[in-house]
Amino acid sequence: SIYSQMLRVLVTFKSSAFAEECEWRFVDLVIRGRTAGPVSFTDMDGMMKPYQVLLTGSKTNEKLPIVEVLAGASRYETEAMTSARLMLRRFGYADVPVRPSRVPLRV
């Protein structure tokens, strides 16, 4: 349908406010309840959020060249940054700096 064709293009647009994040996007369009892979769910602010696991571990012992982590906009900025630091430490990246995103939070 024209809707699904337009949707495939629209999800590629991104506000320039997010340029500092240099993120990668993986988009799996859910059309008529069908997805490319299994969907898991997590609770986020009292709402179930669907997600897909894309990577399940490294095939080598080499570390990624992570130089910085931006903690996304959140009502709980301190907790978000603490969580990011804990995760980095858990995976051997304790020396990687964490800073808050400058993108304003929309609620």
Brief sketch in words of this structure:
The chain has 107 residues and is α+β, with helices and mostly antiparallel strands. It is built from 2 helices and 4 strands; from the N terminus they run H-E-E-E-H-E.
Order of helices and strands: HEEEHE
Strand residue percentage: 5-15%
Structural class: alpha+beta
Order the strands across the largest sheet as they lie in space: 1-2
Largest sheet: 2 strands, antiparallel
Q: What's the number of helices?
A: 2
How many β-strand runs? Answer: 4
Apparent shape: globular
**Contiguous runs where pLDDT drops below 50 for at least 5 residues:** none
Rg, alpha carbons: 17 Å
The N- to C-terminal Cα distance equals 32 Å
Q: What helical percentage do the residues reach?
A: 10-25%
Mean pLDDT: 81
Would you mind describing this structure in some detail?
The chain is α+β, with helices and mostly antiparallel strands. The protein is 21% helix and 15% strand. Strands 1-2 form a two-stranded antiparallel sheet. A hairpin with a 2-residue loop joins β1 and β2. The longest helix is centred in the C-terminal third of the chain and has 14 residues, at 77-90. The radius of gyration is 17 Å and the shape is globular. The mean pLDDT is 81.
